[in-house]
Amino acid sequence: DGTQLAFSTLEKSVRVLNWIALPGHSLGFPGHSLGHLQRTGGLVDHGGAVFSCAWRPDGKHLASASRDKKVRVWELSRSHRDGYNWCAHASHSLEGHDNTVYCCAWSPDGTQLAS
Predict the structure, then answer these.
(1) How far apart are CA 97 and CA 85, in angstroms?
(2) In the sheet where 61-66 sits, what is the strand order?
(3) Which residues pair with 96 in a beta bridge?
(4) Predicted confidence band at 87 (pLDDT cuts at 50, 70, 90)?
């Protein structure tokens, strides 16, 4: 929904930040407003640096590519506590790469994942 930013780290994790819009601070464009980023917990399950991550078009799955020769697919859902924090677990681990995986990308319809 455009309110999350995910980025990979060299610390074996992916970080997800939430965009918290300030009420009444519209920038005059639909969906654009002043606000701040709120850090959520990291997605940590790789055995090496994470070089890339990509949101699936459904916004509920995130893929990450790593030095550990794996691509992980994370299933994310909003926390029932406050609606801002994420709950996540690695739903799939795609193994079998011969070397470090530097990049991953979803097809536009979200049915295929390239690495």
Answers:
(1) 32
(2) 50-55, 61-66, 71-78, 86-94
(3) none
(4) low
Contact 41, 17 (CB under 8 A): no
Query: How far is it, in rounded angstroms, from Cα 89 to Cα 32?
Result: 30
Residue with structure tokens 């799939």? Answer: 92
56 vs 73: CA distance, rounded Å: 9
pTM: 0.73
Strand partners, 52: 65
Per-residue model confidence (pLDDT) at position 91: 75
DSSP assigned state of 109: T
Q: Are strands 86-94 and 71-78 parallel, antiparallel or unpaired?
A: antiparallel
Q: CA-CA distance, 90 to 108, in Å (whole number)?
A: 22
pLDDT, averaged across the chain? 77
Q: How far apart are CA 56 and CA 106, in angstroms?
A: 6
> What is the torsional sign of CA 30, 76, 15, 86?
positive
